[in-house]
Amino acid sequence: MAEENFTVLTEFILLGLTDRAEMKIMFFVLFLMIYAITFVGNLGMMFLIYVTPKLHTPMYFFLSCLSFVDTCYSSAIAPKMLINFLVVKGTISFPACMVQLLCFGVFVTTEGFLLSVMAYDRYMAIVNPLLYTVAMSQRKCVVLVTGSWICGTLNSVIHTISLGRLLFCGPNVISHFFCDIHSLLKLSCSDTSMNELLLLTFAGVIAIATFLIVIISYVFLLVAVLSICSAAGRQKAFSTCASHLTAVTMFYGTLSFSYIQPTSQYSVEKEKVAVFYTLVIPMLNPLIYSLRNKEVKDAVKRAIKIKHLPC
Q1: How far apart are CA 107 and CA 68, in angstroms?
Q2: Which of 257, 270, 276 is nearest to 77 (CA)?
Q3: How far apart are CA 177 and CA 23, in angstroms?
Q4: Rg of the chain's alpha carbons, rounded to an integer?
Q5: From the centroid of its chain, how far is CA 31?
Q6: DSSP assignment, residue 265?
Q7: How many Å separate Cα 133 from the centre of its chain?
Q8: E strand intervals along 89-201
Q9: Does residue 277 contact residue 108 with C-beta atoms inside 8 Å?
Q10: How far apart are the first and last CA of the chain?
Q11: 171 vs 6: CA distance, rounded Å
């Protein structure tokens, strides 16, 4: 019996958001601005927290870690996307595709865990203010952040290794602007049922577990806030949590829409949602946390005053 001939793919073609030349230029300018704002905004937030002693608290330690993760996972996607806007055919090698998938998986999963950690931190700060500094010690904060990175890395490594074992011998066109796992599973000529089960299970468990931590923390937090006698105290507590709730809603809403579903139901329309959670949310996070946070705004004002002081 003759062996079936096939060609193992060594690279993929990324279709991106459009194939029209004039739209590519417009998108290049738009997403270059978004990436620049993301990069400067998140690094600026990290620098501001580092140089402002008043912001050396667990809440801002976690916020600086979130800014670092946002910078990393936006940088895993945006540079290649921008380059592909400037070429006729955007390609990516198989190893580079796996690296991009691994990095994106690590950063986006770590962000999910960090958001749940930040919800727990807000719970401890408002429900147990007298024990807050003891309960959220520097060592505990480092452990929580390290645990988030470990969980994010393990999740991404498992999916990347299982995907790397698949055979790609058919079409090599990815109808996406980055190496998304759903799009790659569609191109494989191997049995992907185990990969889909792993993806659905891990995405579902991680999303539900971290989101439950957020919900439970805020339920207890809401009860504590409503018991505060002072109207000014309640307003301050709500203001402190509003930024985090906004970030959580955007993050979990878009990711759940894209990943907690079978690959067969993944559509081009849902791929467009990826623009929001890969590029827009990392840009908005520093704006959300700074515009609604008096301490951050005061730190920015002090930094500006110091810059304009005569030598």
Answers
A1: 9
A2: 276
A3: 14
A4: 22
A5: 17
A6: G
A7: 28
A8: 91-93, 173-174
A9: yes
A10: 85
A11: 11
- Amino acid occupying residue 71: T
Check the CA dihedral 186-188-194-200 and report its sign.
Answer: negative
Structure tokens belonging to residue 193: 């049922």
| The one-letter amino acid at 228 | I
pLDDT tens for the chain, 311 residues: list them.
444 455 667 889 998 888 888 899 999 999 999 999 999 999 999 999 998 888 889 989 999 999 999 999 899 999 999 999 999 888 999 999 999 999 999 999 999 999 999 999 988 888 888 888 888 999 999 999 999 999 999 999 999 999 988 888 878 888 888 998 888 888 888 888 898 898 888 888 888 898 889 888 888 888 877 776 666 666 766 666 777 788 888 888 777 766 666 555 555 556 667 888 889 889 988 888 876 677 777 777 777 766 555 54
